[in-house]
Amino acid sequence: MELIIKNENKILQKYLLIAAVAYQVFYNSSFRVVNTANIWKNLGYASLVILLIYCFFEIVRTKNSIHTWILFFIFLSVAVMYFYFGKFSVGMILVFTIYIFFMNTQDILSSYLIGIYLGTTGAIILSLIQVLPIKDSFGTIVLGFKNPNTIGYYFAMIAMIQIMIKKGNYKILNFIVYITAIYFNIKFFGNETAIMMMLLFILVYILFNYMRIFDKNWIITLCLGALPFILFFIALYLGNNYGEYNYIEKINKIVTSRPVIWHYYLTNYPLSLFGNDVQIYTNGLAYTVGQGAFDGAYIYFPILNGILPFIIALFGLSISNVYLYKSRNFILLTLFIVLEISGFSENLLFSFYQSPVIVMSLAMLSKTWRRENLV
After folding, report:
1. What is the rounded distance in angstroms from the CA atom of residue 137 to the CA atom of residue 16?
2. Secondary structure letter of residue 102 according to DSSP
3. pTM of whole model > 0.70?
4. Tens digit of pLDDT for each residue in 272-281?
């Protein structure tokens, strides 16, 4: 009887996470632009409240260490604080982190896979029946999303996560989905970053699995632990020194004007403990470079949300890289590396609903969670 109840709770927990991820993916498509009524935003907040209520009953129902209780209340208190100050993305990251404390990595991955699939499918269907735009103003196919990059990333995430699910043997299906995602990104979305992510995913996974030089090497361990910090400092250096050196201008052209945009925001909105309220100016001396197009997670996240949660997130990613490498969980490590590298030019890394990486990295700050839930 107890086992049946436990299994039912596990299924309910997955369904709730699937629903929350699916709604966020769907709501943050063009649906959010077309439907501006507060009820849709409030439904998203209601889903977070439901997740927290479930967490509270789960932590009371099950036997947990003092360490788990302390982490639960620290994360919850900080989430409430950031919600109060209007930093909703940080609060939502923490809520999702609290929620997955009672899930293993395979359940988390499968929940995100299904959630992203359902949310994306919903937006695509509405675009096909012309409720949402099927193309953007440039004539590029977006299938219900704000730009082709977003739908391209979702195709890539679905393909990568599907390979990581251990249950069942779907190698041929996984191959077809992977090739299809690459094809759509090349043919319709033109998302070069998503294509590079998918190719890098395969390359990194092969290196870790089939080249002995990457097996329990202290230099590799050090590099993996330092990777998030290295990428941050490179982005910070390029942003702060744009206009000072010619080679940075060349890099700026290669990475489609990221450094010049970073330079604008770093100059006008210096890094602070709790972040800045960014304004977009369309003319005059205060004209906003990029007009709101602000990509690059290592600059975007700390400027908007503050250096405090950003540093904690970097430590979470660093610890996760090292632990996954030492425990030989190469498939999950590969996803982390790919998202961290893509974070140099895109914002996917610190999204709580577009990928499971940031919430899992914070959960891995807990030794108990790492020991009991990494599968």
Report:
1. 36
2. G
3. yes
4. 888 888 887 7
